[in-house]
Amino acid sequence: MRSISIVIAAIVAPCYIHSFSFCPPLHRRMRNTIVSPLQASPNEDSYGLLFDCDGVIIETEELHRLAYNAAFREFNLKIGNEPVEWTVAYYDILQNTVGGGKNKMFFHFRNITMAFPEYEDGKPAPTTPEEEQDLVDRLQARKTDLYKELIAEKAQARPGVLELMDEALADENIFVGVCSASTKEAVTKVLDVTLGEERRKKLDVCILGNDVSRLKPDPMIYVTAAEKLNIDPKNCVVIEDSVVGLKAAKGAVRST
Question: Which of 98, 105, 106, 114 is the most exposed place for a label (fewest CB within 10 A)?
Fold first, then answer.
């Protein structure tokens, strides 16, 4: 498995930074009291610490790959009599190119293999967009179930993540959140197992793939988080592990 370095990227900065410090104001806020951006201008006295989930809070990329391949095997996906399987090296490239599980499958079949697979012991490959969408939806649903089973068996927070999160949660001037392209069902399971339900419920915002219409590398997920927190993106720090996520973080300030 590849070695992943967690990258801390300030939304405002066009570069990587490896440490950061907050200089909180004298007054303090009450956690979980978020003002709508329609009611007030962005709060310059508060800060945001936003975590990606997969590969940051937990090393999940290999679990995702195993779950996809297990779903592919169950559906007996084949293209030209060859089974569909994503290798470690290929998935490393894929997850740094495309955000979101369904988008990964569409990208793979439309841009890499240039063909959708036969499935379920000889059913012909889908020939219309509706049939393609149906197959991908079914594959993603089964992959999510298999992924949740793997998480229950193997999930463990990456070293240092819980300590960093707890320190930020204890500071009432810092909003803490999770921004992940994965589905609510999958991420909630991961967070409950790794963070614990009590810590998860303390998060000030949780924006997931179901909540936005455009996934990373589009900055929408981080722009949405900043808006919900009523914080200027310049006051946010994002922790990401992928090129796709880093592009989303950097793009957030440029879209405001």
Answer: 114
